[in-house]
Structure formats: structure tokens, C-alpha cells
Specification:
Spore Coat Polysaccharide Biosynthesis Protein SpsA, Chain A; 34% strand; six-stranded parallel sheet; elongated; alpha/beta; UDP N-Acetylglucosamine Acyltransferase, domain 1; single chain
């Protein structure tokens, strides 16, 4: 079983952070989005990974090779972002006839990897949503078999959204459908969609069962990223590195504080993740993500996403600031 993780997107909805950092490497609950995904699959027994990279792909490649030297890692470059279907098609030579598990690089799901791998045949991860118009949608019969999938329908016939988790057994058929759509210019919302190829497979007789996931964390926007950070800190329990300097500091868990941080005369938490080497003085921070090597002085922050190497001095704010920034709010 090979895992394909597409991480070529530019992450425009998370700017300014994604001007200097790939979306997959945005910090989350003391880790990165990508590391949470890879750890989950590795712990479930997956050892072979194909990552589709593009925007700042060298950063992703360096990160994965440094942190996962024990895994079989392959990289495919997608120079032009033409959609998820195009990204998956680029992996065809590395996949061959092997079964694949496709997991989107900006979505974290709670599911049992071993249980999914044990499914007899192909399966698509789904979850009920209130408004399915912004997702791929699966129409499911009474036996749990998927009869049709549609990308972002204006009038959905189902409220079961595709969560970005695909276990594919008939890979040759998948690549034939992808190639046919590429050659015919079949797109959805101006992109070559994986959903269209899956619907093509269903039309050719492929059987897909639905696989319901637990929590589903969409990390594509600031608000959903902060919400996911809070939930995952509760789930993982947070962690405070031994290598720190606390002086007159109050820590309200759950929090994640990386090595080398200095916190003086401040209150941190709950639901705060702080990157390595950051200094926080005379401040109150809650429900926020703070990047590495940043400096916060005399601020009250909540619901904020602060990049690395950032300096902030001033008053109460809700902020969304990218890397290498200095702001005086006084």
C-alpha cells in the first residue's frame, strides 16, 4: 500500500503565512499539519509515501527527509496547479498497479488506518455536513455503497461530504479515467477534479464503500486552523519542553511550548501553541498559534495566528501576521 499526499497548493486562504511557508508546514498543536498526517499513516503501518509538491516544494522535501529518514519517500513535482486530479495523475508511474491511499495534505481526519486498510475493496472517507455545496459529495445507497460522487454541486442530493481520504484498489482504472478527463478537458470549477475521475470509475463498474470518519479538521483557513489547534491540543494533551525559562508565568493547559522559549510576567493559554525560541514578556495569549523565534511584549492576543521571526509590541488585538514582521501597536 502506497500513500499519496498532495501538498502542491499555494494556500492562498492562509496568507500572509503561506508567502514564506508551505501550508502543509504551518504549525498545529506543536507539530505541523503534514507531520500529523504522516505520523497517523506510519503508525497504521504505511511505509511508502509519494508526495506531490509544487509551491515551495523544496521546503517540504527537506522537512520530510529530515524528520522521516526511515520511510520510503518519493516526490513528484506539479509545476502548474491544475487541480487534484492532475496531481494524482502525475504519480501514475510510481504507483503502477499498487493500491493507494490518497490523503489530502491540508486535512486531518480521525480514523482507524488499520480498519480502512482492511476494507475489502475501494472506499471513500465521508462525513455528514450542514452545507455540502463547498465539498465533493457522495450519494450513498442503503447498503453503504457509493452510487455517485459530484464535486461542489449547487443542488446537492446528499449531505455526505468527501473528506479527502480515498482508498483505491483499481488504480489502473483510476489513471485511465484521469487521463481521459485530461485529454477531453473535463474540469469542475476550472480544475481537473479527482471526484470526476472517481465518478467515471463508478460508471465503469468500480465499487466504492463509504467510510465514516470521526472529527474532520479543515486547516485551510485561519479560523478553522485555530479551532483545529484547540481540539488537537485537547486530544494530544499539549506539551511543554523542558528547555524553557519561565519567570512569574501562569500556564493554562492545554498548551504546546517548544524548546528554548522564554515567558516572563505573562499568562499563556488555554489552546496556545508556541514555536521554538520565542520570547513572551508582559503579555496574555490565548487561543492562538505563535511561530518560532518571535517576540511578544506587552500585548493581549486572542484568536491570533502569528508567523515566525515576528516582533509585536502594543495592546489588545486579534491578529493574522506572517513571518519576519515587526509591529509596534503602542
Amino acid at each position: 500500500m502506497k500513500a499519496i499526499i498532495p501538498v502542491a497548493g499555494a494556500g492562498t486562504k492562509l496568507r500572509p503565512h503561506t508567502y514564506t511557508q508551505p501550508k502543509a508546514l504551518i504549525p498545529l498543536a506543536g507539530r505541523t499539519i503534514l507531520s500529523i498526517i504522516i505520523d497517523q499513516l506510519r503508525d497504521g503501518g504505511v511505509r511508502e509515501f509519494i508526495l506531490v509538491v509544487g509551491y515551495m516544494g523544496e521546503k517540504i522535501q527537506d522537512y520530510v527527509q529530515l524528520h522521516y529518514p526511515d520511510l520510503d519517500l518519493r516526490f513528484v513535482h506539479q509545476p502548474d496547479r491544475q487541480g487534484l486530479g492532475h496531481a494524482i495523475f502525475l504519480t501514475r508511474e510510481l504507483v503502477g498497479d499498487d493500491e493507494v491511499l490518497i490523503v489530502l495534505g491540508d486535512t486531518i481526519c480521525e480514523f482507524d488506518v488499520g480498519q480502512l486498510l482492511a476494507v475489502d475493496g475501494s472506499a471513500l472517507g465521508v462525513k455528514k455536513v450542514d452545507d455540502p455545496r463547498n465539498f465533493g459529495v457522495a450519494e450513498i445507497d442503503d447498503e453503504g455503497r457509493i452510487t455517485r460522487v459530484v464535486e461542489k454541486p449547487q443542488i446537492p442530493k446528499s449531505n455526505m461530504a468527501l473528506v479527502g481520504l480515498y482508498r483505491i484498489r483499481e488504480t489502473r482504472m483510476l489513471f485511465r479515467c484521469l487521463e481521459a478527463n485530461l485529454q477531453a478537458g473535463v474540469t469542475s470549477h476550472d480544475e481537473y477534479s479527482l471526484t470526476d475521475a472517481l465518478d467515471c470509475m463508478i460508471g465503469q463498474g468500480a465499487r466504492f464503500t463509504s467510510f465514516r470518519v470521526g472529527n474532520w479538521f479543515d486547516c485551510g483557513r485561519k479560523e478553522s486552523l485555530l479551532a483545529s489547534n484547540a481540539i488537537l491540543l485537547k486530544k494530544f494533551g499539549g506539551a511543554v519542553a523542558d528547555d524553557h525559562c519561565f519567570e512569574n508565568a501562569i500556564i493554562i493547559p492545554p498548551v504546546s511550548i517548544a524548546p528554548g522559549c522564554t515567558v516572563r510576567n505573562s499568562i499563556i493559554g488555554p489552546h496556545v501553541a508556541v514555536g521554538e525560541g520565542t520570547q513572551i514578556h508582559y503579555s496574555v495569549v490565548r487561543d492562538s498559534i505563535i511561530g518560532a523565534f518571535s517576540k511578544l511584549y506587552d500585548v493581549v492576543l486572542h484568536d491570533s495566528l502569528i508567523g515566525s521571526d515576528t516582533g509585536i509590541k502594543g495592546e489588545t488585538r486579534t491578529l493574522n501576521i506572517g513571518d519576519n514582521t515587526e509591529i509596534d501597536l503602542g
